[in-house]
Amino acid sequence: MTNVVSAGLGRSSGGLNSKAETELRASVIPGQPDIWVLVLLEAFTFSSYFVVYMIYRMRNPGLYLHSQAQLSLQLGVVNTIVLLTSSWSMARCVQSARAGDYGIALRDVSLTILLGLVFTVSKLFEWVTKTQAGLTFTSNEFFMFYYFLTGMHLLHVLMGFVFLGVVVYQLSSPARRSQEVIETGATYWHMIDFLWVIIFALLYVMR
Amino acid sequence: MNTAATQTLAPMPASAPARGKRRDDPKLELWIAWWVTIAFYNIFTIAFFILSRTQPPPKAWWHLPRIVQWFDDNHFGILFGFAMMFLIVGFSIAANALIAQSMRRMSVSPMFAYSYLIIYSLAGVPGMLLTCIALTVGAMRPDRDPKLLSLLYDMGFLSFSGTMGIFLIGSLVWGIAIVLDNNRVLPKWFGYMNLSNALTEVVVAPCVIFKAGPLAWDGSIAYYINMVIFGIYTGAFIMLLRNMIMREDFGSGVLPVLEKPPRR
Questions:
Q1: From the list A32, A138, A152, which residue is nearest B209 (CB)?
Q2: A-to-B residue pairs, Cβ atoms closer than 8 angstroms
Q3: Which of A38, A50, A159, B215 has an alpha carbon 20 to 30 Å from B228's alpha carbon atom?
């Protein structure tokens, strides 16, 4: 089980030149290089969604401006601060793990999970209040994009909890604690934070 | 065992060697499955994209007269294209078997391979066959009531796009198996690509709600961007399965690295 989960996020486990390769990679790229394929692919996918959003927005700026005014900028800012803070705590976790302070690293990743949950609850709360106000997925084009983009993002956050769970599992026993796996999980979490910042800018701020 | 592994590492030559050698080749079945997969995807492309022109899909918001006209315009293409699909749909099993085989070769539980096989065996029915059946029935009698044609039109395209959930779960199963695997059967980046593909397939779900716009079954997000990701993913897994077959040593440990670059 230990080896299975350690290998789970790409840790080398035997084979030709694996140790040398891993050491070389560790000095050049944080985490397993493979995770960057996911990061780049998701960045590409979301970028294409953003481009589609911008094109549709250009066709009907009045509708989008009016609809954006229905969003709570304050809540958007709070969500952004929560996610940025979670990225900060995740970075602290990586730093602590590098220094060998695994107890502190475990505390930091737990804080990240907690902040992720705060974001999730906040997002659900926002959706519920919007829906109760009659602003649903099918209300108009802007809200279709709003629910779609924030929904896809939340799906990525939920997957992020799986990655963080693996990091917790790694940190919780001296038999594991692969720095590479921890950094791989952190890379994924930073990616969803990065995506949220752009979504926040597009949906809430850009008017 | 190492000698046997080394001997089986080199790719099979394109021209047939002595008959005795080819019959003894333990990888023959794997190569047959791989080439059948290639054949299937090519015939699929011809049937859907060229003959029947059901891909890219026509508009979801068309009204009755326009839908009737579409059936009329594509009458023979639909009939011939999908007649061909009805004949060769069984070829899709080769890809599923090869992918399940990849999971059996991994260090993870066979449960992954079995789950994948079950999911994808069922996936072809709503995801492809239902489309072929509905649209063929529509094209077969052009004088059918337009309302019935409209029903068949919706059934055909919604079933093709809207049933992506099956492929989503299948991608997750394969992706998690690859990420957990210790035998290095397939690279970890492809495991993550499966996760990415799975997440992308979620975007198709809203096509049951929207008849126009980017989330309709012909929308820029639900169809075109989705197909770009899926196309990259399919191309990647076909080449990786080829690589896997060349590396296959019929053991149970780490799959050896190819010593020579793959020959075209």
A1: A138
A2: 78
A3: A159
Note down the domain range covering B113: 27-247
State how far the Cα of B187 lies from the Cα of B253, in Å rounded to an integer.
15
Q: What does each C-alpha distance from B173 to A38, A206, B33, B116, B178 come to in angstroms?
A: 16, 39, 21, 7, 9
Q: How many helices (H) and strands (E) in chain A? A: 8, 0
B61 located within any domain: yes
User: Rounded distance, CA B100 to CA B199, Å?
Assistant: 21
pLDDT under 50: residue ranges of chain B: 1-9, 12-18
Q: Are B68 and B149 in contact (CB under 8 A)?
A: yes
Distance CA B149, CA A104 (A): 65
Nearest to B206, CA basis, from B221, B218, B216, B196: B216
**DSSP class of residue B263?**
P
Tell me if A5 and B108 make a contact (CB, 8 A cut-off). no
Contacts of A54 (CB under 8 A, 6+ apart): A202
Give yes or no for residue A16 having a pLDDT over 60. no
* Cα atoms in the 13 Å half-sphere on the side-chain side of B98: 28
Pick the residue of A6, A45, A154 with the most B CBs within 10 A to test the interface with B by mutation: A45
DSSP string, B46-92: IIIIIIS--SS---SS--HHHHHHHHHHTHHHHHHHHHHHHHHGGGH
Q: What is the DSSP string of A153-169?
A: HHHHHHHHHHHHHHHHH
Q: How far is A100 from chain B (nearest CA, A)?
A: 26
User: Rounded to an integer, what distance in angstroms lies between the CA atom of residue B131 and that of residue A124?
Assistant: 36
Helices (H), A60-178: 61-68, 73-99, 102-132, 141-171
Pair B229, A45: CB distance under 8 Å: yes
Domain harbouring A166, CATH code: 1.20.120.80
pLDDT band at residue A7 using 50, 70 and 90 as cut-offs = very low
A134-159, pLDDT tens digit by residue?
Answer: 999 999 999 999 999 999 999 999 99
Residue B84 lies in a domain: yes
**Are residues A126 and A72 in contact, defined by beta-carbon separation less than 8 angstroms?**
yes
Does the pTM of the predicted model rise above 0.90? no
* Owner of token pair 């260090």: B107
Domain count, chain A: 1
Average pLDDT over residues A26-55: 87
